[in-house]
Amino acid sequence: VLGMDSIKDFRKIRNIVGYMPGRFSLYTDLTVQENLEFFAGVFGTTIQQNYSLIKDIYIHLEPFKNRLAGKLSGGMKQKLALSCALIHRPKLLLLDEPTTGVDAVSRREFWDMLRRLKDEGIAILVSTSYMDEASMCEKIALMQNGKVLGVDTPEGLIEKYPNRLYSLRSDNIYDLLMLIRSQSFTKSAYLFGQEIHLSVESDRVTQNDIMKTTADSGIQLTDIKEIKATVEDSFMWLMDTKESTTHIQQ
User: Fold this and answer.
1) 119 and 184 in one domain?
2) What's the pLDDT at 246?
3) Whole domain around residue 219: which residue ranges?
């Protein structure tokens, strides 16, 4: 960890690493201010010493500094947990699914805070199940069942996507999904919100071919277009590739 042995140097490491667990783990029977003072004391520092680092986060908490931590909203609990993880000015910040269960506005604010912390020179390692969040990182390790499927920049992962990709929409989205998955030209087909991402291997498969297939089956497309892959598309492709390889080996 940061060039140190995780066993021999655990005391040094503890002082330069900040950790924010996925589940709120601060003292719910202490106030916001008391939690901050407690964690600052654990690391032999004070709120005042490192206030400049948490200032942009703490200004949201300050009106509630005398409120019990257990009475805070999800977004405010998140900000308090991050402040406590930063109060000793760590060099490495570990975040375990920090935005799970948090509203969209709080998620956006949280990632804005992380960008500012990065500018302060803090290395940040985040685990997340949200691919839009992963896309904001400098490097991504995609994992499935505890195994790393691929490591690269967001752009690098997208560039490795090998297939032609279409976005399909229909008022009968689930019937369309079943139909598309049964076609010989389909490499994969997954729901992405209100649309289907269809991957085809051959450049000879055109939009007209897909439209004819759906029309012959009585399913009307409301939209079809060729699209560029996202990090999530790359993840699904890597996952399918891994499963296919495992099946062949067995």
Assistant:
1) no
2) 52
3) 162-228
Would the pLDDT of 248 be above 50?
Answer: no
- Each residue's pLDDT tens digit, 100-112: 888 888 888 889 9
Could you give the count of Cα atoms lying within 13 Å of 103 in the half-sphere of its Cβ?
7
112-146: string of b/e by CB count within 10 Å (b at 16+)? ebbeebeeeebebebebeebebbeebeebebeeee
DSSP state of 120: T
Residues 96 and 194 in one domain: no
In the predicted model, is pLDDT for residue 1 greater than 80? yes
Residue 248 lies in a domain: no
Residues in CB range of 235: below 8 A, 6 or more apart: 131, 142, 149, 157
Same domain assignment for residues 35 and 102: yes
Q: Is the pLDDT of residue 82 over 90?
A: yes
Number of H helices, E strands in the chain: 10, 9
Q: Is 115 helix (H, G, I), strand (E, B) or coil?
A: helix
Across 48-67, average pLDDT: 93
Strands 92-96 and 123-127 come out as parallel
CATH number of the domain residue 196 falls in = 3.30.70.100
Q: Are 77 and 182 in the same domain? A: no
Is the same domain home to 185 and 125? no
DSSP assignments along 9-68, one per residue: THHHHHHHEEEE-SS--S-TTSBHHHHHHHHHHHTT--TTTTHHHHHHHHHHHGGGTTSB
How many domains, the chain? 2
